[in-house]
Amino acid sequence: MSRGLVWAGGTEAAVRDVPALEPRDGWVRVDVAVAGLCGSDLHVLAGEHVRARPGIVLGHEFAGRLAEATTDLPAGTPVFVDPQVRCGRCDACRRGLRTVCAALTAVGIDYPGAASPQTLVPVENVYALPPSLELTRAGLVEPVAVAVRAVRRSGLGPGDRVHVVGAGPIGCLVGLVAQRAGADVTVAEPAPARADAAAALGLRTVDPADRRPEHDVVLDATGTPRVSASVCDWVRPGGTLVVVGAYPPQPPPFDLLRVMFAELTVLGTRIYDHEDIHAAIELLDRDPGRVPDVVTRTVPLADAVAAVADLRAGRAMKILLDPKE
């Protein structure tokens, strides 16, 4: 029996024995090389995710090697796995809007995740990785794909003034990807440690209280209701606001009058699709720049609970987990 990092119920994370994986038609086993711990995992561990149930093995950001052959790929192939499982039947899926599937589920939330030596994933969600891309670095494909999609959805271009609200891992990645697209990027973050981390990545930080409506594109990576009421203050008339962070289900305050008076465009962005994943893999393989520096450290499975505590306390930006026993 393998061990894994699980949500034990309440707010408890634990490393414990986990049940053997049961074969499923159309799914394949992957030996996990690295799994990222992120904000979504913290939401699960806080009991805030509506679908997650106690006992679930965490981990939806990961890369590894095929433990068995598929029709197209031999065993041992290095792969990234898209953890999102689409139904393929809803109206959105039939229209090609895979990111907004009405019945979207995910490995690490609805199915056992990658914070364990091996996991089971849909064959169609497997992406072969170039041999030149280290698997540790490939552990960032999932969050980089989120950032790639957010920037692509925003429509920003070279020379645009772009502002990112929130300097967590996703906010920093969004800022770095926007920089690579040629934008003039600033970031606002009230937490000193995160603001310092963003600056260390080469992102220009500004005072969160000094909100000026002078940005062509603003990307809100917070998901924090105390931000939503004033986030439009950063956007210049005719500009675009992109909601990147996931807000709680209760509708937060939002300045719709400013949206109307300033003719703002408000967009949502959710997860990623094929083109975003391919772009993220190419970025990490060919020219990652400062992107890998968002990782604070890599830890063994035995230290996973302590890693969760550090993330909760804001003592780390991004922690990767090596789940091999």
UniProtKB/TrEMBL annotation:
Entry keyword Oxidoreductase: yes
InterPro entries for this protein: ADH-like_C, ADH-like_N, GroES-like_sf, NAD(P)-bd_dom_sf, Zn_alcohol_dh
Gene3D superfamilies, per database record: Medium-chain alcohol dehydrogenases, catalytic domain, NAD(P)-binding Rossmann-like Domain
Domain Alcohol dehydrogenase-like N-terminal, chain residue ranges per copy: 25-130
The Alcohol dehydrogenase-like C-terminal domain, residue ranges: 169-285
Cofactor(s) the record lists: Zn(2+)
UniProt KW keywords: Oxidoreductase
GO MF, one annotated term: oxidoreductase activity
Protein name: 2-desacetyl-2-hydroxyethyl bacteriochlorophyllide A dehydrogenase
Organism of this sequence: Jatrophihabitans endophyticus
